[in-house]
Amino acid sequence: MPELPGGTPAPTHAYVPGQTARHPEGWFDPLKTIDADPFDSPAMRAGLDYLHAGYFWECHEVLEAVWLALPDPSVERHMVQAVIQLANARLKLAMGRPKATLRLCVMVQEHLVAGRASRPIPGATPPELLEWADNTAELAKRVTNGEL
């Protein structure tokens, strides 16, 4: 099975609802392993690998396990939610839903503010996430304006 640069198994394709086939049930279950420290778990690493490789639905699927393992409420949970919503924004952009994309980019910013006291997520610093959300929002605006 091919692997992404971080060592995470690569799916055969990126799932985009309404455009591509869904992955087999349970395919991601082995990747949802959570250690004592959810920030330094196989699930966190896999989710970030998927985000960086453009597997946005897959990122959300795996990181949900990390989010659920964190205390509620917590600043760490907000940070993971920021990554999940960024992946969701990128997915909505791929689906041709720019208004949903813009709404999700605002949510990313809100979660980054709420999680600002969190320790950083390895491989996804708040400035990087904010820049990615800003770039995503800019693309969505261009789609809305008919420029893309």
From TrEMBL:
Q: Which domain of life is it from?
A: Bacteria
- Taxonomic lineage per UniProt? Bacteria, Pseudomonadati, Pseudomonadota, Alphaproteobacteria, Rhodobacterales
Q: What is this protein called?
A: DUF309 domain-containing protein
The organism encoding this protein is Pseudosulfitobacter pseudonitzschiae
